[in-house]
Specification:
- The structure holds 2 protein chains of 2 kinds.
- Chain A has a single domain (about 5-130), classed as Glucose Oxidase, domain 1, CATH 3.50.30.10.
- Chain A is built from 3 helices and 7 strands, in the order E-E-E-H-E-H-E-H-E-E.
- Chain A has helices at about 65-75, 85-100, 110-115, and strands at about 5, 10-15, 50-55, 80, 105-110, 120-125, 130.
- The longest helix of chain A is centred in the C-terminal third of the chain and has 14 residues, at about 85-100.
- By secondary structure, chain B is of the alpha/beta class.
- Chain B folds into 3 domains: about 5-175, 2-Layer Sandwich (Aconitase, domain 3), CATH 3.30.499; about 180-285, Aconitase, Domain 2, CATH 3.40.1060; about 290-420, Aconitase, domain 3.
- In chain B, the strands form 4 sheets. Chain B has a 5-stranded parallel β-sheet with strand order 12-11-10-13-14, with helices on both faces. A 4-stranded parallel β-sheet of chain B has the order 8-7-6-9.
- In chain B, helix 3 links the parallel strand 2 (about 45-50) and strand 3.
- Chain B is globular.
- Classes of the chains: A alpha/beta, B alpha/beta.
- Chains A and B meet through strand 1, helix 1 and helix 2 of A and helix 2, helix 3 and helix 16 of B.
Chain lengths: ~140, ~425
């Protein structure tokens, strides 16, 4: 299978494709959903409601807490797609689901699926994986 | 092959031992399955990072576990918090942060966590030994435990740390297994002058450089003098775990699983060999500085927490001198090290010089600094990496001697000779 669902769920959103891994702690403002790591190439963009796509997790142990808080506040991404598995991201989403019943699906995509994710394109996440929009005339 | 639970694991999951271990096992089991682990293993200690307040979610989780009778199953130390309970006036938190910070700390001590409030649990005499399986969170503690102590912990984060502490169990995966502990990337120091190779200031810079280059892959470093001191390895690991995701390294000739490069590589060939020269180190050093021209408002050292040996070094440097007016000088440390340093008299020497000591927390995660409009100087690669984003300051990186000389002069002074060829 092209995707592995670390945390199953449903979500729809436009892809926010990050060029580098983002540490949620120090990188994402849970009050607003904005990317606040000044060194990050996508600094200043807002992740709320987007399908956040990044190659891997990064950095601090505290990122689980920050992600859970963003999910609680409704500023988190609608779903997170990773190039490689990351327990710190997974646990943040798991705990938010336990506490608040809100699911932010976490997906690991293989290279083929990952490379099909286009910035700003709307994708649908289901318990079975990532669904891309039907290919149009273009 | 699927995850197999022991009888005790199944009892915990079924709620036989209470709701808190059941919730913890639910999370651990989900993570174990995601990681492809086949079983859980026992741990001998836990270090919990979740006691630092990042919002209501963390507090909700801790209070739910504590309210449902959660008790740690293994000796558990607690990481830094948002407050300094010994010196409450040093933290300029609003009432809400004070209230939330205190409640979070209370929840973790109610569950049986030892109120150590330190990011450097490895500075305690009661630290894990070679080969012990542990569950530590806090990136610098993880990398130190794996690399310097040879204990075995995976890269645990918030929430899963207390789940491991409440159950005494972790998935057998990641750095608990030999195959993930061997070095993948070799860094060779080439043409680095002896004076720099033996200088304390090299280590946070080298850690920063290697973290950037290796990501999460285990690096081995060759070309360092044998027997690198623990404080230098602490500074190295903390920087590498900040700029990258380094959870283990091998300093060949120093760390316990790297008597030789061959041993560090576990008999395999490296995926990559990277040469590190003086120019690369100078560039890495420059990345740790955002500003050099401007007013020096503060100096902060002790990230990770200052050791007893570092208190001795700093006391020798500041004895009989005085921090310049208008400059704040902070040392971050643990209660345990503070008590030991006070007994030796070094704390008194620091206070006479005009230095404030912060315990239980750290200056880059909670409001301590009064002046934030100028430049803050530090000898910590980790502080330099995180503080500009976290607390919005400009930072200048230098050695401990640079930090002291600058604080006394009231202006940034850096010894450039050690960085010349």
């Amino acid at each position: 299978m092209a995707e592995r669902m670390l945390l199953k769920g449903n979500a729809v959103g436009r892809v926010l494709l990050l060029d580098e891994p983002l540490s949620m702690w120090g990188g994402l403002d849970p009050e607003t959903g904005e990317i606040i790591d000044r060194r990050h190439p996508q600094a200043g963009l807002n992740a709320a409601g987007r399908v956040l796509v990044m190659p891997a997790g990064r950095g601090s142990s505290s990122s689980s807490s920050v992600l859970a808080e963003a999910i609680r506040l409704g500023t988190a991404p609608a779903a997170i797609i990773l190039g490689e598995s990351d327990d710190i991201v997974l646990v943040g989403a798991l705990v938010a689901e336990e506490l608040y019943g809100i699911t932010c699906p976490v997906v690991v995509a293989d290279g083929d699926t990952y490379s099909r994710l286009r910035p700003d394109e709307e994708v649908t996440i289901t318990p079975a994986g990532v669904a891309f929009p039907a290919v149009g005339e273009g | 092959m699927e995850l197999t639970l022991s009888e005790h694991d199944r009892e915990m999951a079924a709620g036989v031992h209470g709701q808190a271990p059941a919730l913890a096992m639910r999370i651990l089991t989900h993570v174990a399955a995601a990681d492809g682990a086949l079983r859980f293993i026992d741990i001998t200690s836990a270090h919990v990072d979740s006691c630092l307040y990042h919002g209501e979610a963390g507090l909700d989780f801790a209070e739910r576990l504590a309210a449902t009778g959660g008790r740690v199953a293994v000796p558990t130390t607690l990481n830094v918090s948002s407050l300094d309970l010994l010196h409450p006036d040093l933290v300029h938190a609003d009432d809400r942060l004070r209230d939330r910070g205190r409640r979070l700390m209370a929840a973790y001590t109610a569950m049986g966590g030892t109120p150590t409030w330190t990011c450097a649990p490895y500075q305690s005499p009661r630290r894990p030994a070679l080969g012990e399986h542990i569950a530590w969170a806090e990136s610098n503690a993880i990398v130190f435990a794996n690399s310097v102590l040879g204990a075995r912990t995976d890269r645990y984060g918030d929430f899963i740390d207390i789940c491991a502490a409440l159950t005494g169990r972790v998935p057998e995966t990641g750095l608990h297994l030999d195959e993930h502990r061997r070095a993948r990337v070799v860094f060779r120091l080439v043409g680095v002058p002896d004076r720099l190779a033996s200088a304390e200031v090299l280590y946070p810079v080298l850690g920063h450089l290697i973290g950037r280059a290796t990501g999460t892959k285990v690096p081995a470093i060759v070309g360092l003098p044998p027997g690198v001191p623990e404080d230098a390895l602490k500074a190295f690991g903390a920087a590498a775990a900040s700029s990258g995701g380094v959870a283990m390294f091998h300093a060949v000739g120093t760390t316990p699983e790297a008597p030789t490069l061959e041993a560090a590589l576990g008999g395999a060939a490296p995926e990559q060999v990277i040469d590190v020269d003086l120019a690369a180190l100078r560039a890495a050093r420059d990345e740790l500085t955002t500003h050099l021209d401007g007013v020096l408002t503060a100096v902060s050292v002790g990230t990770p927490h200052f050791s007893l040996e570092e208190f001795r070094s700093l006391a020798a440097l500041v004895s009989g001198r005085q921090v310049a007016p208008g400059v704040e000088f902070y040392v971050n440390t643990s209660r345990e090290v503070l008590a030991a340093a006070a007994a030796e008299g070094t704390v008194h020497t620091l206070r006479l010089a005009g230095i404030d000591i912060v315990t239980d927390t750290c200056t880059y995660i909670t409001p301590v600094l009064r002046g934030r409009n100028g430049i803050v100087m530090t000898n910590s690669g980790k502080w330099a990496w995180y503080a500009p984003g976290n607390i919005g300051v400009e930072v200048a990186f230098g050695s401990l001697i640079d930090c002291v000389d600058s604080a006394m002069a009231g202006a940034i002074i850096r010894d450039e000779a050690v960085w010349s060829g």
